[in-house]
Design goal:
Blueprint: E1 2-4, E2 20-24, E3 27-31, E4 77-84, E5 94-96, E6 99-101, H1 104-115, E7 145-149, H2 158-161, H3 166-175, E8 177-181, H4 191-201, E9 204-206, E10 210-212, H5 215-221, E11 223-224, E12 226-231, E13 234-241, H6 246-249, E14 258-260, H7 263-276, E15 282-287, H8 291-299, E16 306-310, E17 317-322, E18 325-330, E19 336-344, E20 354-363, H9 374-391, E21 394-398, H10 405-420, E22 424-428, E23 439-442, H11 443-449, E24 455-462, H12 463-469, E25 475-478, E26 480-482, E27 488-490, E28 493-494, E29 500-506, H13 507-510, H14 518-521, E30 526-531, H15 534-542
Helix pairs in contact: 1-9, 3-4, 3-9, 10-15
């Protein structure tokens, strides 16, 4: 590794230039700078050459070269990692208990003011006037922060989902994210769209456990095991990790040609490569995996010397440790971020370069002292206007909001059963992504509740098999009830083990999502061609709720027969 001992620049006289220090194995040699034309500085990945060196074969330094001097030790350097996960397209803030939380523009304003973070470029079509100047002691030619994501960036509220993630990708490009773990929902809009979103967001997607045998597909996706970023002259190796249950937590058919390899072995290989091949001074992990699953693995490998492990996927705030390594998930929806300050001395031996690590989880709550980033705020407003124009039709009204997610899921499964007919409807809990807020209920509300592009399927299942299916804790059920004695009834009658029942599910569940086994129980499902949102919108609209007759008070009303309105 070769570096200057001061900030030499082309055009300075010899009297203002310091020597080059060159590391050969464990020895350090200092070469003086001869008078003459200024030497060019090497860019990223371009090492500087010592004076007198040559690319010609057999070239050597003169024997009269000045004797080597001791290299000047480098000082400690502190870089700050900023980490969010499971952003899920939450461009706008969300009111919780009377407090406004999150928001992409609000988060960026905070990162700039309090962390000295450097934003990315202003998105095309947005006036740059009023763009924030980073409040950092250094300018943005030498940033001191690295913003990372734990994955699942785009699928969520209608403001992102309706536009196939483009709005959120544009926001992430402005926010200055460097890399993201590969989340299980990154292919929700298809593989070609993933590549477009990646480029718009200016992201490196990372996953040490992703193996792609097809060279063309691998090139198109550009998912790397690790990436090395430089901040303040320090090389930070970032290793990514995808969730081990990706094929069960997303539409498996979208991952054709991709293999998810064992977590521990994949991490071990990538961490060593980041240090040995990437010459990283410090290594961190960004993982789309719950910290509960990561901690036992990291604890087994103190030799990894990880400075930080960012987790996600489980949508919970978790602040724990694996040995000396902080393992953190700040939660989802941009309501919090993790701040990890790492002090490094690159002059120390590799095993001792990390001097100190401190971390905290920061709430992103409304603060009049922290202005939102103006260009990003304008971008969010523009997308909000577009989605309101497309999906703003009011279909009902809620007085105080409807939640938690399980209650909303019950509305969904009830709507399927009523609108499509059948015996039982089963909704997976993980499919519901938000509650119904107070006020007008619109098409956009239902897009936010059900953001994924799922279709409804009817399957025929015998009672004995169905009874086992209904035991799954991940399911929300309509049409079937369990008595205190453990027996199930369907339509008010005891379930017949030999009778076949018509069950409404999604194509995600039929494909094995959330561990469902419906495909094995009925190899010939009947596709309805309907989006899972359509019956819900129709059913809520038929309830004719309003401010004086809110939806939550109409949910228990006996529905009219399918296909008929009151």
């Amino acid at each position: 590794m070769i570096f200057r001992t001061d900030d030499a620049r082309p055009g300075l006289s010899c009297s203002t230039m310091r020597p080059f220090a060159v590391l050969f194995g464990s020895c350090t040699v200092l070469f003086p700078l001869a008078c003459g034309p200024a030497q060019p500085q090497g860019g990223a990945g371009t090492p500087l050459k010592p004076p007198g060196s040559s690319t010609a074969a057999g070239a050597a330094n003169p024997a009269s070269e000045t004797p080597p001097l001791a290299a000047k030790p480098r000082d400690n350097v502190t870089v700050t990692l900023l980490y969010t996960t499971d952003e899920h397209g939450w461009l706008e803030s969300l009111s919780e208990d009377g407090v406004s939380r999150g928001g992409a523009a609000e988060l960026l304003g905070r990162l700039v003011k309090y962390e000295g973070h450097c934003p990315g470029p202003v998105p095309a079509g947005i006036d740059a006037a009023g763009a924030l100047t980073p409040a950092a002691p250094e300018d943005c030619t030498s940033p001191r922060t690295l913003l990372l994501s734990g994955g699942d960036n785009f699928t969520g509220p209608a403001i992102s989902t309706y536009f196939n993630g483009v709005s959120m990708a544009s926001a992430m490009g402005r926010m200055g994210y460097a890399a993201s773990a590969f989340g299980n929902h990154e292919f929700d809009f298809g593989v070609p769209q993933f590549s477009k979103l990646r480029d718009t967001a200016r992201l490196h997607y990372l996953a040490a456990n992703v193996k792609i045998d097809d060279a063309k597909l691998a090139g198109d996706l550009a998912i790397r095991h690790y990436e090395v970023f430089e901040r303040k002259g320090v090389k930070i190796g970032v290793v990514g990790l995808a969730a081990a249950d990706t094929l069960k937590a997303a539409m498996a058919e979208r991952f054709q040609g991709i293999t998810f390899e064992p977590t521990e072995a994949s991490l071990d290989k990538a961490i060593h490569e980041a240090r040995e091949t990437g010459a990283a001074d410090v290594v961190v992990v960004t993982a789309h995996e719950c910290p509960d699953n990561l901690v036992p693995i990291v604890e087994k490998h103190p030799e990894w010397r990880l400075a930080f492990v960012g987790g996600g996927h489980c949508h919970r705030k978790i602040d724990t440790r694996a040995g000396d390594t902080p393992v953190i998930s700040p939660g989802w929806r941009l309501h919090r971020y993790a701040r990890v300050a790492i002090t490094i001395n690159p002059s120390n031996p590799p095993q001792a370069r990390v001097v100190t690590i401190s971390h905290s989880i920061v709430d992103v709550a409304a603060d009049p002292q922290v202005p939102a980033d103006p260009p990003l705020a304008r971008l969010v407003t523009a997308w909000k206007t577009k989605v309101d124009s497309a999906l703003g039709k009011v279909i009902g009204h809620s007085e105080g909001g409807i939640g938690p997610e399980e209650a909303v899921g019950k509305i969904v499964s009830d709507a399927w059963l009523h609108e499509l007919g059948g015996d039982v409807a089963i909704m997976n809990r993980g499919g519901v992504r938000q509650t119904i807020p107070p006020g007008p209920v619109t098409h956009a509300t239902i897009w936010g509740v059900l953001p994924f592009d799922n279709r409804l399927v009817k399957v025929s299942i015998d009672g004995a098999s169905l009874a086992k299916d209904l035991e799954a804790k991940s399911f929300i059920i309509s049409g079937a009830k369990r008595a205190p004695n453990g027996k199930w009834s369907v339509g008010g009658k005891p379930m017949d083990p030999k009778k076949r029942y018509t069950v409404i599910i999604t194509d995600f569940m039929y494909g094995g999502g959330d561990g469902a086994v419906f495909a094995a129980q009925d190899p010939k499902p009947v596709g309805t061609g309907l989006s899972w949102r359509d019956p819900v919108i129709a059913w809520i609209e038929k309830k004719k709720s309003a401010e004086w007759a809110p939806l939550e008070k109409k949910l228990d009303e006996k529905p009219a027969p399918a296909g008929k309105q009151r």
